[in-house]
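ABC transporter ATP-binding protein, Candidatus Thiomargarita nelsonii. Tokens?
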Amino acid sequence: MLKQSNHYTWQGIIDIALRHKREIVLAHIIAIVATLLSVPIPLLMPLLVDEVLLNQPASLVNTINSIFPLNWQGAILTITVITLFSLLLRLKALALGVWQMRQFSIIGKDVVYRIRKELISRLQRVSMAEYETLGSGQVISHLVTDLDTLDQFIGVSISRLLIAVLTIIGTGVILLWMHWQLALFILLINPIVVFITIQLGRKVKALKKKENKAYATFQQTLSETLDAIQQIRAYNRERYYLGHVIDSANEIKNHAIAYAWKSDAANRLSFSVFLLGFDMFRAISMLMVLFSDLTIGQMFAVFGYLWFMLAPMQEIIGIQYSYQAAKAALQRLNKLFALSYEPKYPHQFNPFENHSTTSIRLENICFSYNQQDWVLDHVSLEIKAGEKVALVGASGGGKTTLVQVVLGLYAPQLGNIYFNNVPMTQIGMDVVRTYVATVLQHPALFNDTLRMNLSMGREHSDEELWQALEVAQLTETVKNMENRLDTRLGQRGVRLSGGQRQRVAVARMILANPKVVILDEATSALDTETETKLHKALNDFLKDKTTIIIAHRLSAVKQADRVFVFDEGRIIEEGRHESLIHENGLYAKLYNA
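Tokens:
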């Protein structure tokens, strides 16, 4: 399993990686072959110093002479052949390294895809209250930045680590073969050098954590500001809100500066420690030439292998940074598991099937955002099947929250909701949302075609789309668009007016063909003439459907059979709209009409 005890673990990531056994085995075989090809390279040219320059022919010269004719033999041939052979080995090792990286990329990308897929699937079940508190910027940070960090560690760092470890092992074998005493000294001192550099690296990991946190805050602030930029500009408050974004960017700068120079200082110091060891090993190698059987060519080979070990040693040292970054990213991803799910009710009954519509009954509903102040305070009401009711009252009275509760977007702390006398807890919220549709005052539109914004990914014929547009009073508008149904609406439907966006939402609702319709200030942006035509066209569609209307406009309230008056989360009065509006003058009191 990927997650254990409700959080992501490295063991879970390993379990996913093990599903790619073929790639893992192949990557290791490739790494071994690449190491076998690359490790001998630093030995070849230095040995020519002994065998060619110092005229001490041995295995290399003898092997080459056995292959080529006598009249070809000589120093030029030997140096040329060994040079070409070294280049060939390097190219083959390079190709194998790329191939090995590809195998680990497949594994890393798949692990990250599965985590991303699970997180996105989890968002489908996270409660709306939690999601709204978290914010889209934070979610994007987790799904993009944190997972990219994890991807880099799995797909890049680990593949390089494998090659680095094998290279050091291969180098150690060669050095032991050449001069075991010198090799033991080098191999025993190198871990000390690595340990010192790792200790230095740990000093700066906290700085990276602060930098990542600053990036997440900046991303959240920037996302919220850009989402509301139109209203911010309308109120001439760009300087204030963008100032907050700049402050967040300044925090990134400060933390990034601290991390950059301190991590660089640690890297430089680490490298200096390695160079000190390198100089010490070179000095000892020269002493070995003087006082042991180490040849000059072997001494140059030792120098070559010390440089050859530099890159893999740096990879091993540097992986701690990648690991710490990946570990921090994993911890941030696990915060998503602290978010609570919305209740999942069993699908025991479906009161919507085989009925043209359904009755709705709310029984003693209580809801609060902060677990203290009731937004809905023991609300009870009953709506008959096919009845149209209006919810009116001052802003903040709880009308829209009640709609969110009916849709199951918010779970009430007390009470229950019944459809055809079946409680939602026995129906399931997803079933309710299939048959209950809402049109909001500010509908969400996507930067996609009108067709996609209407269908929401469902299959509908062009005829059905045009019929819905006809009812929504949008036919002429769409016909005048350059690409008609395939016209892109822009970010949040920016190419449409407010009234057109509302009518797109009405057409979307018509295509969904729900059995219960909720109109939440759905015509507030329309002019009187268009609104009248829309209500008239909707009458036939809503004829047998249970309808809840939330509105301030008298024209919308008049469409209802009954009116419920909300005030501070309670229903303070109900009745037919004629008596509430005309006899008591309640509408005038509520809206100063």
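The two ends are 62 Å apart (CA to CA).
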